[in-house]
């Protein structure tokens, strides 16, 4: 028998759960402020997925059929909400904003986030008077004390939650609700108690009361319809049923861990941690339709999806290495639809990176190449020589790699950065000399499927500085160059395998600027890089090409080599 009473409970954390009010509707109201004053519904197909609070006063509810909503609110303004682009964008802006308060921010859907503010609370309590009042609402309205100090922490949590919400309103023009407690379950439930634009704190002594206020086990976050059905079969409907149930029966119905987890939840206990949400593993779009049975139309639809998707991916900033096609086929014999997917790898060189914004994009050639890859996948799923009936097409990118991915991510990052700058210089100095092959490859977007982004060549830094000198190019005072310097210094600190060389370069004497380098650029570089450039220049001056390639042969143990290896 699982004895909940004897399990010690931890109140040490402070968790804030944030939920954006009528999310899609707020995004639309920001776009068209006229909508703030009038009842607004957001529709997807023939249902309302949400409405603003003006509409809710008329009785408009989530998931109502449009026709029903118009019956209760004839002057309801309806905006299409099928395209999630703006919602997704705003959603990530909110998460980014919350990350100012903690690294532990976990996204839950598009409009909810958990923020673990434990550390911030502890810091504030060290410096501020702990005798503060709860901001917002207090569940059950009874103040209490607890020997572990959680009451003071939760009060401070409520102050922070209020600051967060004010910040989101000020920066992003969104009103939100917050729940504050010592675990995720209670914070989430508290959040929904007072809406819109309010916040609620739950203290430990009221956790069970909050759970018992739920009308049904299905209201427990995490209990889906499958669990709900299983519980119904063993006559567990209410929270009280769950608390009082025969534990062995529950274990037989669910597995042991899940049974224990559920009983814990029924008492308001939840020790799950706030997991930092990474960026999405897949970015995709789908479009459903009544019927698609002509190849040219399929191609056109995929083209539209692809263009839209590229915008999403470019904002994400990572490069996808897999593309996936999804279809929903309607079988006219069995009268059922089913989904199928097919995916394949794509070469990162299909994408190019904008030199200034660093956003990724596709050129026309790559666009055609990708579309033909998509159509090939489609044809693997559908025999286009026979009649077919498609009711949904989807495209998604997955398996992302960072622009500076891999073991030597820092190195690749700075070298890519240099590569981009070097390309700029080549473009500008076309009349001066032929571009180096390696740099051409870096900026190539020929769309070859198997092409791997070339590793930067060792001579780029040298080329960069020397070209810069010849062109008098102001681009090279860009912050990315300074980043290069910082990263090199950091890497050097963490490495002990190359000390002979690094000890030499760590000296603070001034290093002479090679005559072919821009003095201002050179001055900005860290001394070790300066040293290497000077050495390289000395080594190469005997066979220097008067037009270019002053650093064509780097020595085997250079810093550039060091970066490539590490
Ligand atoms: P709230 O939090 O009660 O003030 O209102 P919302 O609109 O923020 O509702 P919420 O938090 O449940 O959902 C966030 C957004 O997700 C909402 O604005 C629209 C969308 N959404 C909600 N429920 C559904 C649904 O059942 N289907 C679809 N497709 N979207 C939904
Ligand atoms: Mg919401």
From TrEMBL:
InterPro entries linked to this entry: DNA/RNA_pol_sf, DNA_pol_Y-fam_lit_finger_sf, DNA_pol_Y-fam_little_finger, Rev_trsase/Diguanyl_cyclase, UmuC
Name listed for the protein in its UniProt record: UmuC domain-containing protein
Domain (UmuC) ranges: 15-224
Source lineage: Eukaryota, Metazoa, Ecdysozoa, Arthropoda, Hexapoda
SUPFAM superfamilies linked to this entry: DNA/RNA polymerases, Lesion bypass DNA polymerase (Y-family), little finger domain
Protein source organism: Pyrocoelia pectoralis
Gene Ontology BP terms: DNA repair; translesion synthesis
An annotated Gene Ontology molecular function: damaged DNA binding
Gene3D superfamilies xref list: 3.30.70.270, 3.40.1170.60, 5' to 3' exonuclease, C-terminal subdomain, 6.10.250.1630, DNA polymerase, Y-family, little finger domain
PANTHER family linked: DNA POLYMERASE IOTA
